[in-house]
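USER: For my understanding, would you kindly supply a protein sequence with its structure tokens?

ASSISTANT:
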Amino acid sequence: MPFKALLIALLVLPCSALAVDGVREISHTCASETGCFAGDAAGYPVLITTAGSYRLTSNLSIADVDTHGIHIQVDGVTIDLNGFEIRGPVSCSIDCSAGGTGIGIYADGKNNTRVHNGIVRGMGDVGVTVSFGSIVQNVQATENAGRGIATSLGSVVENCTSRKNGTVGFVGDDTTFRGNSAVSNGDHGFQASNSTFNTNTASQNGGHGIAATGSTVIGNTVTQNENGINCGPTCLVRDNLARVNALEGIRVGGNGLVMGNVSSNNTGFGMKLGADTVFRENLLVDNGGHVKRSFNGANVIDLGSNICDGGFVCTISD
């Protein structure tokens, strides 16, 4: 091949930047102009078709509400956002109701994805969607028209913030949520089943702070939501603080254990409990009432050491 033709061919190849540590690099320039590596064409979304580690080296800007930022099509991918931002066109501070289908990082149906250390903002739908056995750490999902961060089946989400998204802040089944913050989302702060919630905060969300079923909810703080914690049957709810919520501080369905919680200054009852739910060692102060049964005559089991407005007898109402 003549030298000039070879040079032109090299120039139009995807600008695959492979750092000295073996991490593939993603920038807005390569994403929009040439493609960032083999299997990725110019334009969004950036397509990842090879397992391994990837790192942003600039912000990514997506102009269309129906376009993904990064689409992961293989198992075993790690994305270091490296402090940068994936930015879509939506602003929930103005109006995020006219969203679309675009997702900041999309790895639906792919195993063992890890996303960490950056911001996903203003996407037409979800900020981050990952699947089986994935990890999301130190990510801010802000002002996306749909959900902030969505996970499933054996995933872990920790030290993340989901703020001012159009619907739910965090959603996922069989997921561990640890040390996260859900603030001012349009619907629930957290929504999941068969999951673990540990040391999270949920405040000023349009729905419940934490909405769950069959889950373990320990050491969380929920304030100024609809209900603070709304957990269905067979939940363990322990050592949480529920304050100034519009309805009940803590709701738990049948066959639950509610222990060591503080529920105060909620407009409704401090607690609403289902049949055969045990409550013990809780502190209820200045709520609209002490404890309400989820239906008339439900067998709520008081094992004692509860304190309601300074007294050791809590009124249980139908």
